[in-house]
C-alpha cells in the first residue's frame, strides 16, 4: 500500500487550514439562505414592502444561486478555482453591503440576486478544491466536515437572525443580518488569497455561452414558479412556466451532446451521467434534500403557529437536530470506510425513526414541546448527517479531475432544485391540510398536530425512497466489485 501520500510534494501541506477557509465562506452562503426568514417582518415594516415583495426577497437569492451553479463550476475549471472563489467571495461581500444599505424593497431584491450570483461563483469551487486538494484517504473526512457545516448553517441562520434582531446594534435592525457578512467575507478573502493553491482543468477551452443561456433559461423557468407559486396561489402562468422549462432543458441536453460529438467543450459534460453512481446519486439528492428542506419549513411553521413560539424559540427546536447532524457528518465518512454503504442505509433508517417518533410524541406535547421533541429531532439529525456527507463523496467519487467543477455544480444545482421542490410541494400540502382540519371543527393546536403528522408521513416516504435507492446503489457496486475480482488475473 502506498504510504507516502503525506510526503508527496503535489499534496498541499496547508490543505486542512485551506479547508477551514473555504468552508467558512460556504457557511456564510448557507447562513444567508435561512437568516433572512427571521428578519422578514422587520423588513416589511422598515421598507413598507408588501408580502409579494418579501417573497421575492427570499426567492431572488435562491434563483440567482441555483440557475448559475453549473456555470460557476465550469468557470472554475476553465479560469481557475481559486480565482473564481475569490471573485465569488468579493462579490458576495459587496452584495451584502448593498443589501444592508438598501432603501427600498426593489433595491433589496436586486441586491439579493447579486448575492445569489456571487454564491454561484463561489460554492462549486469548494467541492472542486476539496476534490483536487486532498488525497483519496483524506477526502471522505474533508467532505464530512463540509457536509456537517452545511447542516449547521441552516440551523445557525435562524438562531443568528433572531439574536441579531434582538441585539439591534447601532439601531440597524434587519440590516445587521446582511452586514454581518462583511467582516466574515473579508477575512475569508484575505486568507484564501494567501493560502489557497490555484487549480483548473488540464485543458482550457472556450466557455459554452449558448449552453449557459439555455441552462439558465431552463432552470429559471423551472425554479421560479416553484419558489413563488405557493404564495401566489399557483396561477396559470406558474404551470405554463414549468411546462416550458422541459423543452428548453431538453434542447440544452441535445446541444451539449452535439458539442461533445464535435469535440468541442460543453458546459455540462454528459459523460458524467454515464457513471451510474453519479446518476443515481442525483436522484437520491432529489429525494433526500427535498424532504430535509420541507422538514425545516413545516417544523418552523408548526412551532410558531401551532405551539405559539417566538421566532427565536422556534429556532431552539432545531438545536438537537444540528448537534446530531454535525456529529454524524464528522463520523459518517470514517464509518463508511469500514462499513461501506451500510452507513448510509443506517442513516436513512435512523432518520425515518426520528420522524416516526415526532409523530408519536406530537399528541402529548406540553407547552412548546422542546423537551418531548429533543430525542426525535436528535435522531433525525443523526440520520441526516450519516447520509449527507458520505453521499457527497459517493456521488463525486467516480468523477475525473477535468470535470470536477461541472460535477460539483450539478450536485449543488440538484440540491437547490430539490429544496425548492420540497418546500413548494410539501409546504402547499401543509397549508391545505391545516385549512382542511381547521374547517372540520378542530382547534388550532389539534389541526396543527394532525397536519404535522400527515406532512411527516410524506417526508418519511421520501426517506424510504432514499433508503431503497441507496440499497440499489450498494448492490450494483458489490456486483461490479465481484465481477472485477473474478476477471482480474492473479498476482
UniProtKB/TrEMBL annotation:
Residues 18-478 form the Major facilitator superfamily (MFS) profile domain. It comes from the Bacteria. One of its GO terms (molecular function) is transmembrane transporter activity. Keywords: Membrane, Transmembrane, Transmembrane helix, Transport. InterPro entries: MFS, MFS_dom, MFS_trans_sf. The keyword Aminoacyl-tRNA synthetase does not apply. It is a multi-pass membrane protein. Its main location: membrane. SUPFAM superfamilies: MFS general substrate transporter. This is MFS transporter. CDD domains: MFS_MMR_MDR_like (cd17321).
